[in-house]
Structures
1.
Amino acid sequence: MATEEQQVYVRSGDRTGEGVLHVAVYGPQERMRRAAVACGVAWGLALLSIPIPIAHFVLVPGFLIAGPVVGFLRYRRERSTERLTGTCPACGRDFEIVLQSSEEPPLRSYCPHCQAPLEALRELPETGAPEPAPGEEGGAGDRPGGQAGSEAGG
Ligand SMILES: [Zn+2]
């Protein structure tokens, strides 16, 4: 089983840092083995369901059918995300977050140190210029009287 490391961006609030997404990549044999395990587990559950009265009419065929289905779904999965590492933009400490195999960026989690909400992104969203928006408030004509400092002497 090979592991792939993908560069991602980690965003918290308006701060952005960098992180690494660790992805397990399965070869054909690995996928076949995972599929067989999933199918075996389902069929094992089917066997365990046999002694259950009444429910076994549903459970046994259900698990028997689910075995190849789950196995197929697992066989199709060529890669699965394992964990996300990086530096928290909020507190600056390194973190490691264990992921579900189906979790893909953009995904949300929390910093294990400071509980800041983290967002992992493959690409940074396009944002406007960092300068404040040009929509200035207040117009002309709101000024309090034009006192040009010219005092009339006399
Ligand atoms: Zn943090």
2.
Amino acid sequence: MRRRYLWIGVLGLVILSVLFLSVARKQGSPLKAEASLFGGVQTRLRSSSFGGQEVFAQLPKPKACIIDIDGTIANEKERRAMATNPDGSTNWRKYFNPELVKKDKPILKSREVLRWIEEKGVKIFYVSSRETTVLEASKWWLKAHNFPEGEVYHRKSFAQSLEYKIDTIRTIQKSYHVIFGVGDRDRDITAYQTCGIAAIKVAESSEEDWIRVKNEIAKLIK
Ligand SMILES: [Mg+2]
């Protein structure tokens, strides 16, 4: 007898659950949104106002910028002098010595501007043609000198600098709205322009020129 009541109870619960689910489905949940962790690009919306149909909407990508390292935020003149052979050529092994990289002097005004950029909600990507062998030294240097956090990209030794920068920026652009790039070389400017972002050239290893650079950036991110 008890068993029979138990079965009737279970059956009742099942019927109630089915009824509840079918009603909920008809009404549709007000808004169902799915987005990836980093401000996902595609959002799926299901709304009763769309007759329960699924529609796809584009979320704005988070803002970002590209910052070169050598000659832009790091003064590497001493390292370069040490790595210059008597015939004027460069000893690249020495130039990309992690211990020497760590000794580069920070360009303090650039740090101030990068902190301001960060406060404006623009993510920083440090895209440098330094070889990947010094990646850890670069990260150490950025942290040691209190530069804002950001992803750091370096070049594999066999890669051509220009192509590497363009490829890296295009990959970043898949997930971010990259507004501008700052660099001290014509090659940086070509890479930025090729990727369709505002290109700002800063005088090599200059503190003062960052004042002008900040004004240029202010026009872009206000
Ligand atoms: Mg540079």
